[in-house]
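Minutes, structural biology subgroup

Action item carried over from last meeting: produce the structure token record for Large ribosomal subunit protein bL25 (Candidatus Curtissbacteria bacterium GW2011_GWA1_40_9). EB confirmed the sequence was re-checked against the source entry. Recorded below for completeness.
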Amino acid sequence: MEQTPLVAQQRTILGKKVKNIRAEGFVPAHVFGHKVKTTHVQVKATDFHKVFEKVGETGIIALSIGDQKKPVLVKDTQVHPATDDLLHIDFYQVNLSEKVRVNVPLEITDEAPAVEKKIGLLLTPVSEVEVEALPADLPENIEVDVSNLSEIGDEIKVKDMKVDRSKVTVITDEELVVAQIGELVTKEMEAVEAEIEAEQAEAQAEAAAEGAAPAEGAEAEKKAEGEAATTEGTENVTTESTEEKKENIDKNQ
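Output recorded by EB:
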């Protein structure tokens, strides 16, 4: 396997002060491995992004540190949760004559007839599998051909994948399903949708009831006010008529 070159510089700045390194366009990192003394380094961020885009976590990097070149894999990367800026890199130094275990990504190829004919959905519950191999024999990815998945329930397991098993040992459970055709709408989903519709209908009914009650109350209050006004007017008329009668009687006397 071709080794992709990447230049690193040994660093003495550790701890919280590494933010100064990042401010200058570098990423702090360290190199470790089996029977390997940990080395603290820094790499230029732009250079690393280009290399990592090419090799991922399974390609070998020829990491130059001064006059030394070390074959390494990218073991892990840490990114800022808010900005996605690269914060730290873990390089694992490998012995080219010793096997290593890594997770290899799966790549879905072709199109499932069941999906094309809208019979079912393609489900991919697994995105990578663990393998063991010599560093030079590590595959960049493992292709999963779904062109034979034509009916609901059709599936591909780890044991069905095309891997050069003379060089690569698959550690992941061979019976694990990596691709499967599921129903367009499952019974569970239908039940959930029915429950959601029932809850929405109940909410609308409650909202309608709450809106009607104040309206009826306001109408009743308005009617009561009108009746009170009519009664008050009648009382005033009656009072005025009585007073007039009294005045007439007084005049006549």
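Discussion: Confidence is low (pLDDT under 50) at residues 237-243, 245-253.
Next step: EB to file the record with the rest of the batch.
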